[in-house]
């Protein structure tokens, strides 16, 4: 797997800052300080400043993240985050597997708003409702190699059943894909030049369940004390 100079945790926080700033921009907020952003996100202002600094963003002019008491211009911060995260390049993404999950991803407009465009969709058996979605190019799996190679697609999402995921991964890697977001609940083997991120919603739920059980044990403890 390819080495990156920035940790996934920092990258995830930068993505969270970006998404939050996008919302602020939509709500016509012009300036934001690290303190205010931190309060919205539940992250310390020190952490935010450190993340931006570690990401080598040219923020020296706004070093204290509080220019004339107003903070950063939201549009400026968005631009540098967009540039650094590679979001302003209108990235074309392939999706393999247009079932329940794939269909939901295709219908989610927010990706396009941030320059991530699920453009090429492949399936062995398209569902008609999904096929009717506008602006998407649908193809049979047989065409994966041809379409991805011709359009030099580097990023793909796998949303097929686990038993088909490795075969799909092999085909898209052969066609030049270097970055894979894998939703199938299985690990896929890829060459060293390819990066895979395994996405699993149950991880988030397990995290929440931990807080729930901790809260309950605390309550039990308090009750027992009473
Ligand atoms: N990571 C998560 O949190 C999460 C959540 C939901 C589902 N999933 C996983 O995502 C995957 C998709 O889930 P779903 O609910 O959309 O399933 P689904 O059955 O609704 O859709 C799967 C789609 O993949 C297609 N398909 C099957 N084999 C294929 C192949 N070889 N090439 C191309 N297309 C193929 C099917 O025709 C179908 O349209 C599953 O592996 C599921 O376990 C993960």
Automatic annotation (TrEMBL):
<comment type="similarity">
    <text>Belongs to the transcriptional regulatory Rex family.</text>
</comment>
<feature type="domain" description="CoA-binding">
    <location>
        <begin position="86"/>
        <end position="187"/>
    </location>
</feature>
<dbReference type="InterPro" id="IPR009718">
    <property type="entry name" value="Rex_DNA-bd_C_dom"/>
</dbReference>
<feature type="binding site">
    <location>
        <begin position="97"/>
        <end position="102"/>
    </location>
    <ligand>
        <name>NAD(+)</name>
    </ligand>
</feature>
<dbReference type="Pfam" id="PF02629">
    <property type="entry name" value="CoA_binding"/>
</dbReference>
<comment type="function">
    <text>Modulates transcription in response to changes in cellular NADH/NAD(+) redox state.</text>
</comment>
<dbReference type="InterPro" id="IPR003781">
    <property type="entry name" value="CoA-bd"/>
</dbReference>
<keyword id="KW-0804">Transcription</keyword>
<dbReference type="InterPro" id="IPR022876">
    <property type="entry name" value="Tscrpt_rep_Rex"/>
</dbReference>
<keyword id="KW-0805">Transcription regulation</keyword>
<keyword id="KW-0963">Cytoplasm</keyword>
<dbReference type="InterPro" id="IPR036291">
    <property type="entry name" value="NAD(P)-bd_dom_sf"/>
</dbReference>
<dbReference type="Pfam" id="PF06971">
    <property type="entry name" value="Put_DNA-bind_N"/>
</dbReference>
<dbReference type="GO" id="GO:0003677">
    <property type="term" value="F:DNA binding"/>
</dbReference>
<dbReference type="GO" id="GO:0003700">
    <property type="term" value="F:DNA-binding transcription factor activity"/>
</dbReference>
<dbReference type="InterPro" id="IPR036388">
    <property type="entry name" value="WH-like_DNA-bd_sf"/>
</dbReference>
<dbReference type="GO" id="GO:0051775">
    <property type="term" value="P:response to redox state"/>
</dbReference>
<protein>
    <recommendedName>
        <fullName>Redox-sensing transcriptional repressor Rex</fullName>
    </recommendedName>
</protein>
<dbReference type="InterPro" id="IPR036390">
    <property type="entry name" value="WH_DNA-bd_sf"/>
</dbReference>
<dbReference type="GO" id="GO:0045892">
    <property type="term" value="P:negative regulation of DNA-templated transcription"/>
</dbReference>
<keyword id="KW-0520">NAD</keyword>
<keyword id="KW-0238">DNA-binding</keyword>
<comment type="subunit">
    <text>Homodimer.</text>
</comment>
<dbReference type="GO" id="GO:0005737">
    <property type="term" value="C:cytoplasm"/>
</dbReference>
<keyword id="KW-0678">Repressor</keyword>
């Amino acid at each position: 797997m390819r080495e990156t100079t920035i940790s996934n945790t920092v990258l995830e926080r930068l993505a969270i800052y970006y998404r939050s700033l996008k919302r602020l921009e939509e709500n016509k907020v012009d300036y934001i300080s690290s303190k205010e952003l931190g309060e919205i996100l539940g992250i310390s202002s020190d952490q935010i400043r450190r993340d931006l600094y570690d990401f080598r963003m040219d923020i020296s002019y706004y070093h204290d993240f509080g220019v004339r008491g107003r903070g950063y211009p939201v549009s400026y911060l968005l631009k540098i985050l967009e540039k650094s995260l590679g979001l302003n390049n209108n990235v074309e993404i392939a999706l393999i597997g247009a079932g329940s999950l794939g269909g939901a991803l295709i219908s989610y407009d927010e990706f396009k708003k941030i320059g991530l465009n699920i453009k090429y969709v492949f399936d062995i058996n398209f569902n008609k409702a999904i096929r009717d979605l506008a602006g998407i190019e649908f193809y049979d799996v047989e065409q994966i190699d041809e379409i991805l190679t011709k359009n030099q697609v580097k990023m793909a999402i796998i949303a097929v059943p686990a038993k088909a995921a490795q075969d799909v991964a092999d085909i898209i890697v052969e066609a030049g894909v270097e970055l894979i977001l894998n939703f199938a609940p299985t690990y896929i083997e890829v060459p060293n030049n390819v990066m895979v991120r395994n996405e699993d919603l149950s991880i988030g739920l397990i995290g929440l369940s931990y807080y729930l059980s901790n809260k309950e044990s605390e309550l039990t403890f308090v009750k027992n004390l009473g």
